[in-house]
C-alpha cells in the first residue's frame, strides 16, 4: 500500500544535511513497515535492530556509544556489513534503550555518512518523562499518522477518482454526480475502517467489517496495555478514565473538553498529566481555542479551552461500538454523535497535512470549528456532517475578520460562492 511518508523519506535520503531520523507516531500506524519497505527499495541492505524482541541489545550501548565502537558490533549482530550510505540502519522500539537514542548525537556529529532511522511507540512519552540526554538539534523528527482519505482510496484502487477530486478541488468545479456519490460512500467506509494500515489491508482484501472491527479492538487493547506498562502507577486509572471519556464528550453539543465530565468534581490538576500522556503517545490530539485571529495563532491560544480528538476514526467507532451499517447509512440515532465524529475526521486529515488546528468562539457563542494558516493566510473552516450548510457562525466570523476566503466542508459537491470554497468531506485531504 502506498504511503505518503515514502516521499518524505526519499527527500531525507537525498538531503546532504541529513541527520539521523526519528519516526514517531502512535502504535500500529505503520512505522516499521514503512521504514523497512523504504530500506528494501532504496538501499543495498537493511540492518534492523529491535530493542523489544532482543533486550540484550541494550548491553551493546552500555559501555560506549561512539559510532566507531558500535558499527562493528552492530554489523556482527545483524550478520551483515554496515556500509556508509549503502546500508539503512534501523533501531526499532528505541524508547526501550535510552543510550541508543543518545548515540544518535554522535552519529550526527562524527559519522553523518551512516543513514539511521529510529522508530518507537510512545517515543514522545519516553522523551518527555525521562532524564537522559536527548539529542536535541542532532536529529530530524517526523510524525507518522494513520492513513488519510487519499491513501485509503488509493489502497482501494481509486487512483483516477483521486486525480479527479484533486482537480475539482483546485478548479472549484463539481465532480460528476455519480463520482461524487461514490466518493461519499468511500468516505463513510473510511469512517468505519479508519486509517490503521492493518485494518485498511484487511478491508481491501475481504470487505469484512467484522474482521476489521476485531483488529481495531486488538489495537485498542494494546493502547490500554501501554497505559499500564509505560505509565506512572498513580496515573494509570486517570489516563484510562480520560481516554474513555474523550469519546463521550464528542457526543455533546458543545465538544469543548470538560474535566468535570470525566468524574464528578474533576479538575485540571487531577487529569492534565493523563491527557498529556495521551497526547504524547499519539493516541489523541488537543485543539485549542484562539482568543484573537492574529499571527501567530499559537500566541493567542486559551490554554484552558480545548477540544480533544482521537487519532483514528476507525478506532473511534470501535470504541463506541458503532455498527458499520449505522455509519454507512448515517442513521438518525447517530445524530448527537455525527457532528463530533465529522469534526474528528477533519482534524485527522488536517493534522496529517501538517496544520496546527485551532477553533474560535465569539463572545455570543458563534463557533468556527477550525482556523488554520494556509499559504500565509488565516483561513476559517466550517464543518457540517450533512449538506445542510446554513450557519450564522461563519458569517459572523467573516464579517468580523474579513478573511481572504473561507472553507466549508459538508456533503455538498465542489463549488465557490460568497467567498466560500465549498469542499465535500471526502476531499478534506486536499486542503
TrEMBL record:
- Keywords noted in UniProt: ATP-binding, Nucleotide-binding
Residues covered by the DUF4143 domain: 225-385
Superkingdom is Bacteria
The record's section on InterPro entries has: AAA_14 (IPR041682), DUF4143 (IPR025420), P-loop_NTPase (IPR027417)
* GO MF term (any one): ATP binding
Q: Which residues form a coiled coil?
A: none
Pfam families the record matches: AAA_14 (PF13173), DUF4143 (PF13635)
The AAA domain sits at 18-153
Q: Does the keyword Nucleotide-binding apply?
A: yes
Name recorded for this polypeptide:
ATP-binding protein
In which organism is this protein found?
A: Hominifimenecus microfluidus
Amino acid at each position: 500500500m502506498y504511503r505518503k511518508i515514502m516521499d518524505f523519506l526519499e527527500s531525507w535520503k537525498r538531503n546532504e544535511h541529513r541527520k539521523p531520523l526519528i519516526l514517531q507516531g502512535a502504535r500500529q500506524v505503520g512505522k516499521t513497515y514503512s521504514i523497512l519497505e523504504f530500506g528494501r527499495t532504496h538501499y543495498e541492505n537493511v540492518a534492523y535492530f529491535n530493542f523489544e524482541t532482543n533486550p540484550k541489545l541494550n548491553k551493546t550501548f552500555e559501555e560506549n556509544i561512539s559510532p566507531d565502537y558500535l558499527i562493528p558490533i552492530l554489523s556482527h549482530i545483524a550478520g551483515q556489513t554496515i556500509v556508509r550510505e549503502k546500508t539503512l540502519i534501523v533501531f526499532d522500539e528505541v524508547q526501550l534503550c535510552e543510550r541508543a537514542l543518545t548515540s544518535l548525537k554522535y552519529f550526527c556529529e562524527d559519522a553523518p555518512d551512516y543513514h539511521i532511522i529510529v522508530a518507537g511507540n510512545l517515543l514522545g512519552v519516553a522523551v518527555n518523562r525521562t532524564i537522559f540526554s536527548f539529542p536535541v538539534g542532532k536529529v530530524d523528527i517526523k510524525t507518522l499518522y494513520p492513513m488519510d482519505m487519499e491513501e485509503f482510496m488509493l489502497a482501494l484502487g481509486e487512483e483516477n477518482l483521486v486525480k479527479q477530486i484533486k482537480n475539482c478541488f483546485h478548479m472549484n468545479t463539481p465532480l460528476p454526480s455519480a463520482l461524487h456519490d461514490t466518493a461519499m460512500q468511500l468516505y463513510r467506509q473510511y469512517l468505519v475502517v479508519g486509517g490503521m494500515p492493518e485494518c485498511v489491508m484487511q478491508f481491501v482484501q475481504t470487505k469484512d467489517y467484522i474482521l476489521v472491527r476485531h483488529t481495531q479492538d486488538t489495537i485498542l487493547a494494546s493502547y490500554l496495555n501501554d497505559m499500564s506498562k509505560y505509565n506512572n502507577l498513580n496515573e494509570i486509572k486517570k489516563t484510562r478514565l480520560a481516554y474513555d471519556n474523550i469519546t463521550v464528550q464528542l457526543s455533546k453539543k458543545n465538544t469543548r473538553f470538560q474535566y468535570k465530565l470525566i468524574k464528578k468534581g474533576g479538575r485540571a490538576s487531577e487529569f492534565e498529566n493523563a491527557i498529556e500522556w495521551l497526547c504524547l503517545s499519539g493516541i489523541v490530539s488537543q485543539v485549542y481555542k484562539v482568543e484573537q485571529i492574529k499571527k501567530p495563532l499559537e500566541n493567542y491560544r486559551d490554554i484552558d479551552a480545548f477540544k480533544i480528538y482521537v487519532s483514528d476514526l476507525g478506532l473511534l467507532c470501535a470504541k463506541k461500538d458503532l455498527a458499520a451499517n449505522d455509519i454507512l447509512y448515517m442513521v438518525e440515532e447517530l445524530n448527537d454523535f455525527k457532528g463530533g465524529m465529522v469534526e474528528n475526521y477533519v482534524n485527522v486529515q488536517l493534522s496529517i497535512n501538517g496544520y496546527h488546528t485551532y477553533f474560535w468562539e465569539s463572545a455570543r457563542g458563534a463557533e468556527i470549528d477550525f482556523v488554520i494558516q494556509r499559504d500565509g493566510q488565516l483561513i476559517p473552516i466550517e464543518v457540517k456532517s450533512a449538506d445542510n450548510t446554513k450557519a450564522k457562525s461563519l458569517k459572523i466570523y467573516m464579517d468580523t475578520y474579513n478573511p481572504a476566503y473561507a472553507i466549508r466542508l459538508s456533503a455538498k459537491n465542489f463549488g465557490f460562492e460568497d467567498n466560500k470554497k465549498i469542499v465535500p468531506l471526502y476531499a478534506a485531504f486536499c486542503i
